[in-house]
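3.2 Worked example (two chains)
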Amino acid sequence: MPRRCATYDEGSTLMAIGSDHFVYELTTCDDILQAVIMFCHHDGAGEYPAGHRCATAYFAALLDQGKLGASDAERAKRTVAAMEDTVEFNTLAATGRLRFRDDFVTSNWHLAWVVDELTRGGAPARALEIGSYEGRSAWLWYRLLSRAPGSTLTCVDIQFAEHFEYNVEPLRTVGFLERTLEKPSNRALFELDPDRPYDLIYVDGSHNATHVLADVVMADVLLRDGGLMILDDIEWRGVTDAAERFFEINRDRYVVVAVMRQLALRKFHGAELQAGDRAARYQDIERTAASWDGSAIERGAERARLAGTAG
């Protein structure tokens, strides 16, 4: 999402030539993260380990050429360091000290940049993950959030994978893994206290549109003002439909931080909302969540597609 980047020198541009011989430019008002993702994706280096190498090289070029302001430069350095940390649990898995069968996590290096703001001040962050599978992503959050001592994670899954408990036991031992709830998310989230809100909520459970919408509605209640909500697998139709519907209702309460494999949203601070608006918005969401089964949006999208074809 483009932003007004006052930290950049007016008119500064970094040019790079990808393997497809196309020239990519990062200009004054581009979002740094989106530019790096765009370049590495088009350069054929989106997955691990090529994605890590590409992103590291691109951040190094931005730093070497002085294209980043002081704050973004420090953030880039922390992101690269975090990327190196996330590779460590791949090594543990390779030696059998962790038992992972699948890797849907390591290529998500960009999350290091997104969540950096949560730990930058040193205050502990509370995180909630909906959909934990084998626990690999729990290790990712540990590496990214434990830079702020006292940070914690709660994991929710309808059924944890076979080796989940074995894999997360070290995180429980050091106090990072605070709680696990093995039950459907629509039941588990009601057990969590909205008076102890989370700084980060990662939604990666069911990809059914109705289920995703229910998850994000409850996540909204549990997320603190100024916190981050990240929806994984945004390219899945059910996730996309639910995300679009949620954002349509809440566009004046959330801002898009980044769009990649995930959609990252930041919740506005309460002081930024007009009096009475919050209660009205919650009522709208509750009515939507209670009545919507996804068919209305699918029919609307099909009508739009047919209209475009006819035109």
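3.2.1 Second chain
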Amino acid sequence: MLTKEDVEGWNKVFADCQIKQSDLTQPTEGFLIRALVCYIRRFGYKVEPPFPLNKSDTVENNRENRLFLIRLARQIDHFLKITDKSYSFTYYELIRPTPKKTSHTLYILLNYLFYYNMYKEEVFKMAQEPIQKYHELKAQIERQQRENELKAQQSNELKMTVDELTKKLPQLRTEHRELAKRKASQDESLQKLKESCEELSERLKHLHEQKRSLQKKVVADEESRELQKHIDNIKADIARHKEMANTSENSLRELSNSVELMQRLKKEIENARDIVPLRLIDQLKETNKQLEKAMADERTAQERRSILTQNIEDEQQKYETLEHQYVTKKQQFEVKEKAHKESLQTLHEVLKEKTDHLAKLEKEEHALDGQIDEQKDIAEYLEETISEILTTYVISEYQ
């Protein structure tokens, strides 16, 4: 039977389910169900009745509620039989509680709870180490299982990767051979292009030497200016000589007219000698001497005129020769300079084209080297991967 001290102990333990003395003298179905549910929950069981645990003294009679109450009665019966196999608790005693049976049952259950709490710490202390080892072993086993599963997954993925790479290996080898052939062809083309560039450089050097040689053969700018100055001086001399010749010709014409006049006068004087006084004849002789002297001067002037004319003709011919040489040399120089410039321009264009082609080939060669290095890296990776897989497989076989 529950004493007053037992009721107080119950209320201390079960704060959410307080017992009053009236509940024990006149127990109801609802009170007993609430008390037993709180008791079972104390042991850590998850008990959820299909009806609310309110202050109602009765429970609705339906199939779900009856099944829950039957399970509750069996659980309480199990607790009672732990203490003493002669004790029992039935479904009827749950739905039709009596003061004596209710107090006796709650008393036994309360004592069992106190006993359980008393020895639980020692029992748990004794079982703590094995439980801890159990959990450690369980965690180790789970960890090993996860590692094995991860290794199996990695092995499958690696196997799939190896299979895929093995399938790609012939294609990669073919591509490697093709790239090697392309590289060899590119090397050959590059070598030919380099030789062609060297040949063009030699030709360009030869043309530069030829240009310097032509520049030495052609009249220099300073010499050309001196020649032009000399030609201008000759032109000035020719013009001056022509002017002097014209002046001499006019003077000679006047002198010729004077001589003709004197000759006529001489004839007239000779004809009139008999009738002209002696004094006048002497004057005429003197005049005749002057006339002869003038005629001699005329002959000298004519000779000088002939010499001057010949000099003018020589100078004119020399001028024409020099001018013709100057024009010829200038034309030759312009033709050669134009041809040389065109040749240099052509060579520069060819050299630029060859240089661009060489840069393009070098770029392609660089890209080709990168592809070959990539293929080598893939091949090395495949070899290392296959070696690791074989090593792992051999180790696993021996284990």
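3.3 Remarks
The first helix runs from residue 4 to 13.
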